[in-house]
């Protein structure tokens, strides 16, 4: 059964089509990787899923509801650049993730103590309990990104949107983040959408890999047409070897170096 349903979605900026006629059905708990050439509209599609923007045409619904007009707590997002608060300790970064969206400002007194206890549980889970009192600047890139994911998860979103979350990390840290994300997935029934430039990463982590590309191309007006989903690969059990896909869709090879094949 479809949990996230995308029907005939188009998005234009100043009359310029970016994505066109996107249709998609995603079941609850699925992990969907999104790949495609640079600038083809992957982040735009993620912003539409987040309800940060409303599509020019078409509708996106979650669990059969009405289309959302703004991001809510059921959708969490993590960007490539860690968006943690530098002036707050690691623990209070997690507290902030809970307190700010409620619109009551910062927790005080007993409420703050309870929120800090809940934050400690999250930090335990994401392996940052030992640095709870540190400031983010003292953490490695991977740890800061784990904190950003912890913040997003603390709101218990039903949908987690990841925009190149590991793009800025070195290969070793990337691998440990893959394990971390796989573990978190096993513990929750979250539906995940992840934009990546790394096809190997997309196939390793995803149940499905969607490819965004243009199906129509006007050499005189390269911006005349938008991109859509051109492939929807089953990536469970790593699907078909992704190297073959690179032969089929050379534009993906240009979009980023593939990671080593999943074992
Ligand atoms: N708010 C906006 N207003 C105008 N144009 C925009 C806006 N957001 C994105 N665009 C344009 O839409 C196109 C697609 O951008 P988008 O960031 O979605 O692509 P992408 O596939 O995520 O790219 P990359 O892989 O390089 O991150 C780009 O040409 C971009 O300049």
From TrEMBL:
Keyword GTP-binding assigned: no
Entry keywords, A to Z: ATP-binding, Nucleotide-binding, Transport
Gene3D superfamilies listed in its UniProt record: P-loop containing nucleotide triphosphate hydrolases
One of the Pfam families matching this protein, by short name: ABC_tran
Span of domain ABC transporter: 4-239
GO molecular function: ATP binding
InterPro entries: AAA+_ATPase, ABC_SmlMolc_Importer, ABC_transporter-like_ATP-bd, ABC_transporter-like_CS, P-loop_NTPase
Name of the featured protein: ABC transporter ATP-binding protein
């Amino acid at each position: 059964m479809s949990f996230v349903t995308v029907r005939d979605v188009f998005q234009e900026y100043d009359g310029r089509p970016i994505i066109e006629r996107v249709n998609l059905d995603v079941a609850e708990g699925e992990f969907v990787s999104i790949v495609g050439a640079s600038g083809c509209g992957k982040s735009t599609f993620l912003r539409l899923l987040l309800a940060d923007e409303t599509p020019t045409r078409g509708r996106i619904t979650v669990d059969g509801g009405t289309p959302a007009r703004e991001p809510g707590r059921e959708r969490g997002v993590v960007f490539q650049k860690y968006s943690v608060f530098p002036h707050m300790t690691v623990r209070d970064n997690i507290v902030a993730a809970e307190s700010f969206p409620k619109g009551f400002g910062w927790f005080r007194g007993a409420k703050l103590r309870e929120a800090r206890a809940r934050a400690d549980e999250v930090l335990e889970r994401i392996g940052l309990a030992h640095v709870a009192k540190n400031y983010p600047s003292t953490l490695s890139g991977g740890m800061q990104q784990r904190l950003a994911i912890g913040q997003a998860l603390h709101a218990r979103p039903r949908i987690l949107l990841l925009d190149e979350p590991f793009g800025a990390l070195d290969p070793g840290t990337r691998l440990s983040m893959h394990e971390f994300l796989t573990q978190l997935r096993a513990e929750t029934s979250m539906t995940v959408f992840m934009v990546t430039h790394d096809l190997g990463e997309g196939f390793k982590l995803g149940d499905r890999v969607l490819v965004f590309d243009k199906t129509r191309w006007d050499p005189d007006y390269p911006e005349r047409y938008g991109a859509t989903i051109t492939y929807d690969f089953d990536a469970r059990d790593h699907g078909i070897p992704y190297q073959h896909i690179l032969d089929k869709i050379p534009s993906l090879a240009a979009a980023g170096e593939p990671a080593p094949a999943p074992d």
